[in-house]
Structure formats: structure tokens, C-alpha cells
Amino acid sequence: MLKLSKTQWIGLAVFLGAVFVAVPMTIAAFGRTDLFFTLTSVGLLAIASAGVWLTFYIGRINIGQGAFALLGAYVSAILVTKAGMSFWLSLPIAGLFAAFVAVLIGLPILRLRGVYFAMITLVLTQVFTLTALALPITNGAKGITSIPLPGELSLFGITLIPDFATLGNPRVAFYYTTAALMVLTFAAMYRLVNSRLGHLCRSMQQNEELASSIGVNISYIRIIVFAISSFFGGIGGAMFGSIAQSVYPSSFQVADSVNFMLNCFLGGLGYVFGPMLGTLVLYFGWDLLFEFGKYQLLIYSSLLIILMLVLPNGLLSMKIPGLSPKARSGPEVAGKKEEPGQ
Amino acid sequence: MTTLLQVQNITKKFGGLTANNDISFEVKENEILSVIGPNGAGKSTLFKMISSFLPTSSGQVLLNGERISNLKPHIVARKGVVRTFQETTIFKSMTVRESVIVAQHLRAKASLAGYFWGTSAAHRDVEDFGSYADELIAFLGMSAIADEQASNLPQGNLRALGIAIGLATDPKVLLLDEPFAGMNHDETMTMVDLVRKVRDERGVTVLLVEHDMPAVMKISDRIVVLNFGEMIAEGTPREIQNDKKVIEAYLGSADDEIGI
After folding, report:
1. Which pTM was predicted?
2. Which residue of A143, A204, B182, B252 is surrounded by the most CB atoms within 10 Å?
3. CB neighbour list of residue A25: distance below 8 Å, 6 or more residues apart
4. Cα–Cα dist A240/A141, whole Å
5. Which residue of B91, B117, B151 is in closest CB contact with A203?
6. What confidence score (pLDDT) does residue A326 get?
7. Residues paired with residue B12 on neighbouring β-strands, in sequence order
8. Residue pairs spanning A and B at CB distance below 8 A
9. pLDDT class for A321, splitting at 50, 70, 90?
10. Which of residues 118-137 of B touch A (CB under 8 A)?
11. Residue of chain B whose alpha carbon sits nearest to that of A332
12. Could A215 and B82 be called an inter-chain contact, meaning their C-beta atoms sit closer than 8 Å?
């Protein structure tokens, strides 16, 4: 089904080996089990960022992913705590619910372009936070706490995933779950971008008028893409709630939405795996600068500005001699520098 | 020849300004019909209404008797009326071949989900898109630049690319937006031949909007002339050349690029 070149297969194998074997073994060897939690966060933020990246792919700047992550977190938390549903069932429901809400919201706002769409989505996060504060079912500012850990998942009597509460260290289990979800997310994204829907998205990103003149129902594609994008946001948020075992209106804020967008920019809008790399670098970059104390934010922002000036197409556009571009896919970002005469 | 496209009593008002007033004409199957007129005559507005990029204020456009005005552009394209744009409207970072492949959207048989899962119907489509793209590109004489990125192409090639993208949708009627604008004599003649070839060999009816008079006289079967939003003449190039109203309109406008 997937046509990958030899280098791509090797890259994939190395990546999977690192995520599922090398990293956990290294962490265990050094006894830094707190890193499991950090990496799980990175994985979940990368999933949500993947959604944002997809809206970029149709030429829309999405600063509202925090809203859908918050929504997903609440949906899952409410289903698990109030309806006693299994977390594993609540997870896809949270994603689908976020997608459904995205369709409702997307219908009016996806007509907007450029800065107008960006502003509306920015407000969206704030609206969802305030809604969570106001509604009785979300329990206001007190949020939903003591969410039980994910239970057992079994199919035909065979245990696929053991009850997290019975495990010695549920963080390791969360790490593997997140890693699997992240791999699935990016595999789906890669496939999507290289399938017809991806080609249509590219045509819309570059020229919506021309796309509609060749018979592309652009409003339909926009809605589909925004729904998929928000699905990823909902999944990421629901997992987060489950790991933290609590959801508050402040769990995802405007700053988080902005970060989701920055992750995409930093990694590269022209590369499917951009948001993954961007999230990793941004998350650890912030932590590594902790030692600078009150100058942390200043140095962090300055570095971001410099990076965007030097590498406007993201980290993945960096040319490393001798290394073939295995993770590359998709176009250069419209309006940015293009490589001459290929 | 049977009538393919009918423009019936089209009027467009922008507030108090009338851009098109009660315009009616017919386009016959397999003909090349040009709409000409001085700047501001309302050609572009009419063009946009025929392709449903603008709604009409009153009147309608029919394709084989079926209304196609006041719909969405993609639906009009689906019915077989496809417009081209001037050269800036392209898929900048796609190659010629990629553009022509993506433009075959309407020829797709598999669903979008089918492409995601890689069904056999999707595989057949992908192969078909590729071979049809190569065929079209060869037909338009663009094989040498098939893998060039669109943003690197010179103006003449961009026009041809626009036509290639339009043709890739298998249209019944191709609407060309000023295909000769800004071209020198040789480029214009090359383009005239290309448009003729499209009509002759692919059986596509062509309606074009243009103000390059010599080119229009050479290429058109019939011509419709607009002036200040009104239709002042309709006929063969010879009839139009000798039409008093047309001569008046052009001489009155003192537009010396018009070579009547």
C-alpha cells in the first residue's frame, strides 16, 4: 500500500526502533523515569500539532487547537468519570466529538482567510476556556479531578492493554500508548498528504480560485481537513487529561494554541514530520533554557526569531550534506523562498 | 450546429453602476466566440457570471438548456464549463505535470477515502491521471517543460499551462480570460494556433474575452461586442469590422491599440 523507497524504510525502522526500544532502554539505564512523562507530553503535543499542520496545508493559520484539545480532554473525562465508560472507548469519542464541533464551527469561519481566520481561532481557545468555567457539567474552575487511570482493554477475552492501575509505573504504559498513537497519527498524515486529498489541499493552499475552477468543492475539503485537524486535537487532549488524571479550564490556554502553531512553523510547514520535530525542539529548548532564570523567555524568543529568519521553511529544510531527505514531503511553503530550477 | 451555451438577458448591477445590461447571445457547439470591447465595457464581469464566479443581478446562463448561472464555480466546472485565468493564477509550487494531474479531479472515479486506503480503483485513477497528463502535455507541446515548477515558467508557457489545467477537466466549454494579453505578435500567433488546435482536435467549444483586436479577428468564428455594459454588435469578424456602432465605439474611445 505504501510505496516507500529503501532509505525511507531504513528511516522508518530507525525511528520506530528509537521510539519503542532505544529511548525506553536508555531512560531505564539512567534511571530518569521522569523523562517518560516529558516525552509523553511531547508525543501528545506533537499529535495536536499535526492537526494544526494540516490546516496550514490548506492555507489557514490555526491558532485554536487548544480549544479542541480542551474539548477532547473534557469529553473523555466526563465519559469516564460520570458515565463510567472505558477510557479506550472515550478516546475515539473525544476525537470524533472534537471533529463534530469543528464542522459546526468551521462552516461559518472557514470562509475567512489569512489573519481573519487566525484571529477567530485565537479567540476560540478563550471561548472554550470560559465555557468550561461556566458549564455545570465541566465543574467550573474546580475542574474534573481524580480521573481513574485507563482500565483494561480486551478483545474476545484477550487482553490487549492491561489495566494501568495494576502496573508498577503507569507512566511507562502512557509512554508506549502515546508513542503508538503518535506513530499512527503521522503515518496517517503522511498517507493523507500523499493521497488525492493531500494533492487537493495543496492546490487549495496555492490558489483557491483556480482549485474551484477545476471542480474542487473547496468548502467541503476545508471542512473535512478542519475536522481531521480537530480530531487530532481532541485525541491529544483526551490522553493528556488521562495522564494528568485531571482537567481544568486552564489545562489548554491560548498560549498552548500558539505553541501548537509554533511547533509547526519551527519544524517546517512543508514537511509532514515538521510538527513532531518542532514540538520536540520547542519543548526541550524551553526546558534547557531554564538555567537562565529570568532571561529564559528573552533568550527563547530571540532564538525563535533567529531560527525563523535563518530557516523560514523550518528545521527540516536544513541541508545536511550526505543525508538524504527522508522525511520530506509536500511543497515548499507558498510565498517563501523556493529552490531554483529543479 | 447546435446551440450549447445561451446567455439570456444578463444584467449585473454593482450598487448604482450597471456593469452589464440585458446581454443575450448564444454559443454554438464547437465554435470559437470572442467577447470584445474597450476597457470597462463589462467583459470581465460577464465572464465571471458565465463561470458563476459572480452572481447575476438578473437573467441567466444555460448550458444545453440547463441553468448554470448563480451556482458555485465547482458545480459549473462539474457541468463542463471551465474557465482559465490570467497568468498569475496558477499552482505556483507545482510542476506542470503535477498541476495537470491535480486538475483531473473531475475525472476521478475512486473516493477520497479510496485514495487514502489505496484501493484498486484509486490505483487505476492514479495511472490514468499520469498517462492523460502526459498526453495533454504532449498535445500542447509542453513535454520539454513538464517537470518545471510553474513559478519558473515564462508568461507564454503559463498561459499554455492555464489551458492545460482547463483541458484536464474534460470541459465542454473552455472560457479563456484574455489569453493574448501582454503578448507580442509571435506569441499571440502561437497562442491563436494553440486555441484553434484545442477546438479542432479536442472538440472543445471556446468562449474568450479579449481586447487584442487582430488576434480576435483571426481566431473567432463569431464576435460579440460590448461597450459601456451594453451589447452593441454580434456577428462574424467581417461583419464586426464593418459595423458602424463598433467603429464608433472604438474611435470614440481613441484606443489606438485597436487595429480596425
Report:
1. 0.88
2. A204
3. none
4. 18
5. B91
6. 43
7. B20
8. 101
9. low
10. 118, 122, 125
11. B93
12. yes
